[in-house]
Amino acid sequence: MLTLVSAIKTLRGHSHRVTSVALSSNNSLLASGSEDQTVKLWNVSTGQCLKTLRGHSNWLTSVAFSPNSQMIASGSDDHTIKLWDVNTGQCIQTLKGHLDKVWSVAFNLNGQTLASGSIDQTLKLWNVNTGQCIQTLKGHNDLVWSITYSPNGRMLASASSDQTIKLWDGNSGQCIQTLKGHTSSVYSATFSPDGCILASGSEDQTVKLWDLSTGKCLKTLEGHTQLVWSVVFSPNGQTLASGSQDDTIKIWDINIGRCIKTLRNERPYEGINIAGVTGITQAQRASLKDLGALTDGEN
Questions:
Q1: How far apart, in Å, are the Cα atoms of 95 and each of 30, 190, 208, 289?
Q2: Are the C-beta atoms of 106 and 148 separated by less than 8 Å?
Q3: Residue 50: how many CB atoms within 10 A of its CB?
Q4: Element (H, E) at 160
Q5: What is the pLDDT of residues 41-59, one digit of tens each?
Q6: How many CB atoms lie within 10 A of CB 138?
Q7: What is the pTM of this model?
Q8: Helix (H, G, I), strand (E, B) or coil at 39
Q9: CA end-to-end span of the chain, whole Å?
Q10: Are 195 and 202 a contacting pair, CB within 8 Å?
């Protein structure tokens, strides 16, 4: 069932595409990273932009709050990670070492270690206090899109264009397991709240659920019509949300593996049918489809 939804709030201020968002631990602050090379810090209740953090020299690709929400990490196409003081908005450290764009950043449970994933096919672990690279994890043979720590911090998962998800020991940095089953790039991975299941989203338009005790795929969730960019579990772990390039968010019941709701933002020209109109270019048709004046089945 498709449900058209209206935004509770729309936060405006970035001058280019927003590539990443993250909520603070108490859900009062939101950080956003953009292709305009800035991080913005927002008050969730009011929608007000509190600070704009500048310093990167290329697009922002990822942002993450530390567990105590006193620090933000940002990854960029400029090959660096920056650590920011939330209270002052000042850059504390610039972490250098990746040889290409940094696509994902994640703090460990105590906030003392930061993990990063890059187009250079590696993960790096950083000491947050010193800014030094502790370890470089190698094993993927294509770029690393996404990294995430398990709820207990003992495991790190990485999703890659090599069509796999790798599980790493959070302390030793050793690769524990490689999950195989997707048929194209894997863009995102997330642990269930109890740490027993991993969900992954892929360019193959599917979401997969993995049993971490066996490494076996439990379910393949099908329904998106374009690549899946992002996946996240609900706090109780019973449902999963997936965001796709098909402009929808799907909510899945993970016990039965069924989509229970499909959400899409209502578009300005929703329901207007111009399928029979002639004399417009393909580019114009694509724009009108984005605005809702054409459906996916109309050319």
A1: 23, 25, 33, 42
A2: yes
A3: 13
A4: strand 155-160
A5: 999 999 999 999 999 999 9
A6: 11
A7: 0.88
A8: strand
A9: 23
A10: no
